[in-house]
Amino acid sequence: MRQSCHRLLEHQQAGGEEPPLYSPVDQISVVPEHVGREAGGKLTRYAPTEEDEATLRELLLSLQRQVSVMSMNLSAKLDELQRGDRQLETTVALCEIRTQLQELTKSVESCQSEVSEVKRDMVAIKQELDTVQQVKEEIEELREYVDRLEEHTQRRKLRLLEQGLTFFLSYAILAAVLGMLQFGYNTGVINAPGRNIENFMKDVYKDRYGKDIQDDAVNTLYSIAVSIFAIGGMLGGFSGGMIANRFGRKGGLLLNNILGISGASLMGFTKISHCYEMLFFGRFIIGVNCGLNTSLVPMYISEIAPLNLRGGLGTVNQLAVTVGLLLSQVLGIEQILGTDDGWPILLGLAVCPAILQLLLLPACPESPRYLLITRQWEEEARRALRRLRASNQVEEDIEEMRAEERAQQAEASISMRELLCSPTLRAPLLIGVVMQLSQQLSGINAVFYYSTSLFTSSGLTEESAKFATMGIGAIMVGMTLVSLPLMDRTGRRTLHLYGLGGMFIFSIFITISFLIKEFFGYVQEMIDWMSYLSVVSTLSFVVFFAVGPGSIPWLITAELFSQGPRPSAMAIAVLVNWMANFVVGIGFPSMKALLENYTFLPFSVFLAIFWIFTYKKVPETKNKTFEEILALFRNSNGRDSFRDSRLYGSMMNCVNALEQQLPPPPPAPVDEKHDSLSEQSSAGGEAGRPPPPLPPPRFPATGNV
Ligand SMILES: OC[C@H]1O[C@](O)(CO)[C@@H](O)[C@@H]1O
C-alpha cells in the first residue's frame, strides 16, 4: 500500500500537468503485504506506522491542492472567456474542464473513503496483534509458573524421600498386619489336622444318624469346611471398599475383629457342641474377616507409609501372611495340636490375632489420607501425621496429599460402577487384577495345599515330605524378609519380573522331574536324583514366589490408585485374588488327575503370560507419589481428552492454588466438627512452605488460546 501511495505522489510531484483520472482504490491493497510470519515462523507485529499515515495524509493534501489549482485555473479561464469572444470554443472547453473536475472530485472522495477504511483495518489488526501478544505472554508466565511448581514438587519429594521409620509407624504397621497374619493362619490351619477333623465328622454323623458315614460324604463335608473360607473371603474382600469408606481404615479393622473373634470362637467350640455345621459357619465368618483384612490392611499400610518405605512396609503384608502360615503348620503337627483333642484349640487360636489387634490398634492413628482427602479433616490428619512421623514438620506430607487430591479432582470416593466405566482407571484396574491373578495362578497354592502329596509322589517318604513342607513355610518367611529391603531399591516391577521368571523356569523343572520318574522310574539312581530335583525345584519355585509375586500384588494395587478410587479398586482386585485362590484349591486335584505328569504345565503357561504382561504394561511405582502414579496413566491412556491431559492437571493445580490465595468465601452452614477443625487449622497457621506465587489470570474474555 505504501508503494502505491508513493507512486501516486511521485506522479503528482513530477509535475504531471493532468491529474490522473483513476481511482487510487485500484492500487491500494487492504491487507498489508508485510504482516505475517518471518522466516523463523515467529509472529511479527504489524504496526501501521506513522510513515504510512503521513504518506496517505500527504497524498490527500496534494490531491486537494490540485483541486484548488484546477479551480483557480478554471476561474482564470472563465475570466478570460468573459473578456474574449470565442464563445463556442469556450463552452466546449468549459464542459470538458467540468467533466474532468467532476471525475477528479469523485476520485478524491473514493480515495478518502479508501484511506479511512484502511485506517480502520489497521486499527483492528493492531488490536488483534496486541491480544495475541498478550496471550503469548500469558502462556509464557503460566509455563514459568508450572516450571516453578514442578521444581517445588521435586524439592518436596526429595524431603519426603528422606523420611525414616519411626517407633510409632512400626507400631501401627505391626498392629495392622495382625489382620494379614490372621489370613495366613486360617489359610494353613485346616490342612494339618485334616484327618482329625474328618474323624470328628464321622463321630457326629454316627451319633446323629446311627450309622457310619461314607468316605465320599466325609470328604465332601471336609472340603466344604476348607472351601467355605474362600467364599467368606470373597464376600469380605468385596465389601472392604465400602467398609473402608464408611468407617475408615482403622475403624473398619477394629470392627472386623468382632467377626474374627466370633469366627474363631465358633470353630473352637465346634467339638464341644458336637455340630460340624458350626465349623462351616465359623470358617465362613473367619473367611469374611480375612477377606476384609486383605482389603483394609494393605490400604491402611500404603496410606500411612512414607514414600521411600512404602514398598518395604507393603511387603510386611505378605511377611505376616507367611508367618501366619508357618505358625499354623508348626502348631498343627501331631506333637503339638494336630490331634483329635487339639484341633479345636488350633482353630480357636485365631482369636489371638483378633484380640491382640483390638488391644493395639486403638492407639494408632487413622490413615491421614483418609482423614484429609476423604473426610477433609485437615487438623486431625496433621495430628495423625505428627505422631506417625514423630515430627511437627508434616507440611510436606500434607502438600503431597493435597496434590494427590487435586490430581484426582477432589473425588472423595468412587463407586464400583464408576471405577469400571472410567477410561482413565481402566488401565490401573487391569494391572491390579492381573497382578492378583499372577499371584494365584502361578500355582503357589497348588504347592502349599498339596506339597506333602507332591513330595511323596516324587519319591520322598511321608516323614520327609512333611518336613519339606514345613521347610517351604520357613523359606517363604525368610525370603519375604530378604525381599523387604529390595522393594524400594530394586523396584516392584523388576522384582516381579525376576519372581515370575524364576517361577516359570522351576515350574518347568518340576514337570521334568515328574517326567523323569515316569520314564526312568526303573533306575534307582534316577529316582533318587529325581526326588532331589523335585524338592530343589519346588523350593526354588517358592523362593522366587517370595521375591515378587507373593508381596507385590498386595502393595501395588493400593499404589496404583489415588484416594477416591482406591477402596473400590482394592475390593475388585482382592475379590479376584480370592476367586483365583478358590479355583486353584478346588481344581488342582482334578487337574492332577487329568494331566498327571503335566500338572504344572498350565501354571508355566500362565507364568509366561504374566511375565509378558508385566514387562509390557506394569509401570514402576518405586519412589513415586500417588500423584505421579496417577499422571502415568493419565498420560498413557491413549485418549486425547483435554480433561485427561497434563496441561489440564497443571491448570487445575494453578486454579486450586489460586483459590487458596483468595479470601475465604462467606461462611456456609457446614458440619460443626469440620468447621471447628478448619478454624483450628487456619489458626495453626500455614506453617509450611506455600507453593510459588501464581501469576494473576489475565486471559482476555474473548481470547482464543
Ligand atoms: O505365601 C503363600 C500364600 O500367600 C498368598 O498368596 C497370599 O499372599 C496365599 O494365597 C498363599 O497361600
TrEMBL record:
<dbReference type="InterPro" id="IPR005829">
    <property type="entry name" value="Sugar_transporter_CS"/>
</dbReference>
<feature type="transmembrane region" description="Helical">
    <location>
        <begin position="498"/>
        <end position="517"/>
    </location>
</feature>
<feature type="transmembrane region" description="Helical">
    <location>
        <begin position="221"/>
        <end position="241"/>
    </location>
</feature>
<dbReference type="InterPro" id="IPR036259">
    <property type="entry name" value="MFS_trans_sf"/>
</dbReference>
<feature type="transmembrane region" description="Helical">
    <location>
        <begin position="467"/>
        <end position="486"/>
    </location>
</feature>
<feature type="transmembrane region" description="Helical">
    <location>
        <begin position="313"/>
        <end position="331"/>
    </location>
</feature>
<feature type="domain" description="Major facilitator superfamily (MFS) profile">
    <location>
        <begin position="172"/>
        <end position="622"/>
    </location>
</feature>
<feature type="transmembrane region" description="Helical">
    <location>
        <begin position="597"/>
        <end position="615"/>
    </location>
</feature>
<dbReference type="GO" id="GO:0016020">
    <property type="term" value="C:membrane"/>
</dbReference>
<keyword id="KW-0325">Glycoprotein</keyword>
<dbReference type="InterPro" id="IPR005828">
    <property type="entry name" value="MFS_sugar_transport-like"/>
</dbReference>
<dbReference type="InterPro" id="IPR003663">
    <property type="entry name" value="Sugar/inositol_transpt"/>
</dbReference>
<keyword id="KW-0812">Transmembrane</keyword>
<dbReference type="InterPro" id="IPR020846">
    <property type="entry name" value="MFS_dom"/>
</dbReference>
<dbReference type="Pfam" id="PF00083">
    <property type="entry name" value="Sugar_tr"/>
</dbReference>
<protein>
    <recommendedName>
        <fullName>Major facilitator superfamily (MFS) profile domain-containing protein</fullName>
    </recommendedName>
</protein>
<dbReference type="InterPro" id="IPR045263">
    <property type="entry name" value="GLUT"/>
</dbReference>
<feature type="transmembrane region" description="Helical">
    <location>
        <begin position="253"/>
        <end position="272"/>
    </location>
</feature>
<keyword id="KW-0175">Coiled coil</keyword>
<feature type="transmembrane region" description="Helical">
    <location>
        <begin position="568"/>
        <end position="591"/>
    </location>
</feature>
<feature type="transmembrane region" description="Helical">
    <location>
        <begin position="427"/>
        <end position="447"/>
    </location>
</feature>
<dbReference type="GO" id="GO:0015149">
    <property type="term" value="F:hexose transmembrane transporter activity"/>
</dbReference>
<feature type="region of interest" description="Disordered">
    <location>
        <begin position="659"/>
        <end position="705"/>
    </location>
</feature>
<feature type="transmembrane region" description="Helical">
    <location>
        <begin position="278"/>
        <end position="301"/>
    </location>
</feature>
<feature type="transmembrane region" description="Helical">
    <location>
        <begin position="343"/>
        <end position="361"/>
    </location>
</feature>
<feature type="transmembrane region" description="Helical">
    <location>
        <begin position="529"/>
        <end position="556"/>
    </location>
</feature>
<keyword id="KW-1133">Transmembrane helix</keyword>
<feature type="compositionally biased region" description="Pro residues">
    <location>
        <begin position="689"/>
        <end position="699"/>
    </location>
</feature>
<feature type="coiled-coil region">
    <location>
        <begin position="101"/>
        <end position="155"/>
    </location>
</feature>
<keyword id="KW-0472">Membrane</keyword>
<feature type="transmembrane region" description="Helical">
    <location>
        <begin position="165"/>
        <end position="185"/>
    </location>
</feature>
